[in-house]
Design goal:
Layout (H helix, E strand, L loop, with lengths): L2 H6 L41 H13 L4 E5 L2 H9 L7 E5 L4 H11 L5 E5 L4 H7 L4 E7 L11 H10 L3 E5 L4 H4 L9 E5 L13 E5 L2 H14 L5 H11 L2 H20 L4 E5 L9 H7 L6 E6 L2 H10 L3 E3 L8 E4 L11 H7 L5 E5 L5 H13 L1
Bound molecules: pyridoxal-5'-phosphate.
Pyridoxal-5'-phosphate binds next to α3.
Length: 378
C-alpha cells in the first residue's frame, strides 16, 4: 500500500465495543486486573495506553520501522534516546544540530560523562576524522536547521556501521512522507512531532522509531523507566493530524518551491537556502535520498534593516518559534533558536543577523508571495 493510503487505514484494531472509525481516547492511568494470577494486557498507563499505542504503531509503520515510541516532546524523545549511551561514550554530532539537542548534549549529557564533537556532517571525511575509539553514536539532521545543509544518510550510516556506531537521525523537517532514514541504514529516527507530523501548532510531542527489535526493546524500556510519555489526548490529536500529512506536505512544498524561486530573483535577497533549488550544494544528494525538498527554507537579506522590516511587517506568516504548521511561520534564528549562543559562535556557524527562516504553510501561494513582495519591495 502506498503512503497516502496507509496513513488513512492503519492496522490497529477498530474499537471492538462500538466499531468507532477513530481510535478512542483512553483517558485512564490504570487498569483493573482480574486476579492475583491473571493480569491483563494493560497494567499502568505510563507503560501502555491504547491511544498512544495506536499512534506508536502508525508512526512505526510510516517510517518502515518495527517499533515507534511516543514522548511528551521532541526533546523528551531525543533525551531519552541519548540515554542509550553511558559515561565514557563519545558522540559525533552535526554542527548545526537543533539548538535544544545542542543544549542537552553540552550542558547535561556532558555532565554525565557523555562527550560530543560537533562537525559539518555534509562532508563525510570530517565525520570519519572525528570518530575516536570510544565513539558510540553519530547524530544527524538533514536538511539541517536553519542552514538546510544536506548529509548523505546512506554514506554516513555505512561509515557508522563499519565503526560500530548507532546512527540517530532527526527527521523532523522531512517527515516519513519525504524521507525514511531507516531504509537508508540508519538505526534511530527521531522526531519533533510538534511540527509537520501533528501539523496544527496545537500539540507538543516527539517520537523515536527503530527497525531493530532489540534496540526497540531498549527504547521501550527507557520510555517506561524515564517516563516522559505522551498523554492520550495529545496522542489522539496527532493521530488526527497525521491523516492529512501527505496533502499538507505536498501543498506546502509546492508553495515553498514557488517562494524559494521568487526570493532568488529579489535584489534584497542575497542567498536562498533550500534543497529544492538546483543551486543548493546538497541538491543531488538530497534528491537521491528524499522524495521532495520539504516546506522549510532560509534566506539572507542584504541588510539588518531589511531583515527587521520584513520580520516586523510580514502578515501572512506568524512571527514565531516553531515550524510545520498549517499556517506559515517566519522565525529569526539569531534571536530565537540560536539566541543563547554568543555572536561569535553564531557567526562561526553562519547564522548571521540577516538570516530568516520560513516554514511555508497552506495559505494561497499568490497571497504569500504578494505579502513578501510588499514587505521587501514596498
Ligand atoms: C522543534 C524541534 C525539536 C524539538 O522538539 P520539541 O517538540 O519542541 O521538544 C527537535 N528537532 C527539530 C529539528 C525541531 O525542529
Amino acid at each position: 500500500m502506498k503512503f497516502g493510503t496507509r496513513i488513512l487505514h492503519p492496522h490497529h484494531e477498530i474499537d471492538p465495543a462500538t466499531h468507532a472509525v477513530g481510535v478512542p481516547i483512553y483517558q485512564v492511568s490504570t487498569y483493573r486486573q482480574e486476579s492475583v494470577d491473571r493480569f491483563g494486557r494493560y497494567d499502568y498507563a505510563r507503560s501502555d495506553n491504547p491511544t498512544r499505542e495506536a499512534l506508536e504503531e502508525t508512526i512505526a509503520s510510516l517510517e518502515n520501522g518495527t517499533q515507534g515510541v511516543a514522548f511528551a516532546s521532541g526533546m523528551a524523545a531525543i533525551s531519552t534516546a541519548l540515554l542509550l549511551f553511558s559515561a565514557g561514550d563519545h558522540l559525533v554530532v552535526c554542527r548545526d544540530v537543533y539548538s535544544g539537542a545542542y543544549r542537552v548534549l553540552t550542558e547535561l549529557f556532558s555532565r554525565l560523562g557523555i562527550e560530543s564533537t560537533f562537525v559539518d556532517t555534509s562532508r563525510l571525511e570530517t565525520v570519519r576524522e572525528a570518530i575516536r575509539p570510544n565513539t558510540r553514536g553519530l547524530y544527524l539532521e538533514t536538511p539541517s536547521n536553519p542552514l538546510l545543509k544536506i548529509t548523505d544518510l546512506a554514506g554516513a550510516a555505512a561509515l557508522a556501521r563499519e565503526r560500530g556506531l548507532i546512527t540517530l537521525v532527526d527527521n523532523t523537517f522531512m517527515t516519513p512522507y519525504l524521507q525514511r532514514p531507516l531504509d537508508l541504514g540508519c538505526d534511530i529516527v527521531l522526531h519533533s512531532g510538534t511540527k509537520f507530523l501533528n501539523g496544527h501548532s496545537d500539540v507538543i510531542c516527539g517520537f523515536a522509531v527503530v527497525k531493530d527489535r532489540e534496540l526497540g526493546s531498549r527504547l521501550r524500556f527507557l520510555q517506561n523507566a524515564f517516563g516522559a510519555i505522551l498523554g492520550p489526548q495529545d496522542s489522539w490529536l496527532v493521530l488526527r493530524g497525521l491523516k492529512t500529512l501527505r496533502v499538507r506536505m505536498e501543498e506546502s512544498q509546492k508553495s515553498a518551491l514557488a517562494v524559494a524561486q521568487w526570493l532568488s530573483r529579489q535584489e534584497k535577497v542575497v542567498e536562498v537556502l533550500y534543497p529544492g533549488l538546483p543551486s543548493h550544494p546538497g541538491f543531488a544528494i538530497h534528491e537521491s535520498q528524499a522524495s521532495g525538498p520539504g516546506a522549510v527554507l532560509s534566506f539572507r537579506l542584504s541588510s539588518v534593516d531589511a531583515t527587521r522590516k520584513l520580520l516586523n511587517g510580514i502578515r501572512l506568516a506568524v512571527f514565531a518559534v516553531s515550524l510545520g504548521g498549517v499556517e506559515s511561520i517566519v522565525s529569526y534564528p539569531a534571536r530565537m533558536s540560536h539566541g543563547a549562543m554568543s555572536p561569535r559562535e553564531r557567526e562561526a556557524l553562519g547564522i548571521s543577523d540577516t538570516l530568516v527562516r520560513l516554514s511555508v504553510g497552506l495559505e494561497d501561494r499568490d497571497d504569500l508571495i504578494a505579502d513578501l513582495d510588499r514587505v521587501l519591495n514596498g
